[in-house]
Amino acid sequence: MTGYGRVSHPFKDKTINVELRSLNSKYTDIRAKIPQNYREKEHELRKLISDRVHRGKIEVNIEVASDSGDEEYGLNEPLFRKYHRELSRLSSELNIPDGDMLQAILRLPSVVATAADSIDEEEWSAMKTALNDAIEKFTAFRTAEGNAMKEDLQLRVENISSLLQQLDPEEEERVTKLRQRMRQSLDEHLGKDKVDDSRFEQEILFYLEKIDITEEKVRLEQHCKYFIEELNKKQPLKGRKLSFISQEMGREINTMGAKAYSSSIQKLVVEMKDELEKVKEQVANTV
């Protein structure tokens, strides 16, 4: 599931901006972009997020801006000189104009950094407050998306149940047509007088038993009920179970299609498959 949450939290003469966003993923994958002086707290920060945010490719971006605009910066002179030396050499060897090399070097990573090497506990506490507020907004975003997804999933499964109910009259008509077609074929090739009615009925029963879809219909109906029961449970991380149930639904629908021998039943089966594919797409994006 996607998610988004952003919070700006004032702290003394600074503003702490925290932004969380996520894309769907089978696992929890946290990618953090944080100020250099927050690196010592990165492990704790990741744990704070993973304890409350389940599954997804999660990007967290933390920025600390000075309200007064007079934040102290330090220049890494040895690194600056190294970049300048190497770039000047390449420029000379390749006969490339050096242009505004100064500005280019200053934009390179770690050349310019804030003077602060670490953060105190008071600032860390303020950052955690901002992070928790961002997670609250992130969770609310996911909840709203999840409710819309839940309504769509329930509608799709109910559509499958409705299509399943439409199979009964079609199945009765299929049996009648099969019996008539087989009888007509025998009469045409052997003649009515040479057909043993008792044996014919036995063969019909044997054949109809092989293509009977009663068990598949019963199991599919149970799977649909089970899916909706799990969907309505008040618990997180239900996506995998719903995925397993949808797979079982697919097996029953495919078996009914293989046994159909009826264009009208095949049409209903295709419509069921269409609804089930939409279910699978949605389930793949759930937590």
From TrEMBL:
Residues 1-150 form the Endoribonuclease YicC-like N-terminal domain. Residues 170-285 form the Endoribonuclease YicC-like C-terminal domain. Keywords: Endonuclease, Hydrolase, Nuclease. Its cofactor is a divalent metal cation. Pfam families: YicC-like_C, YicC-like_N. Belongs to the YicC/YloC family. NCBIfam families: YicC/YloC family endoribonuclease. This is YicC family protein. The lineage of its organism: Bacteria, Pseudomonadati, Bacteroidota, Saprospiria, Saprospirales.
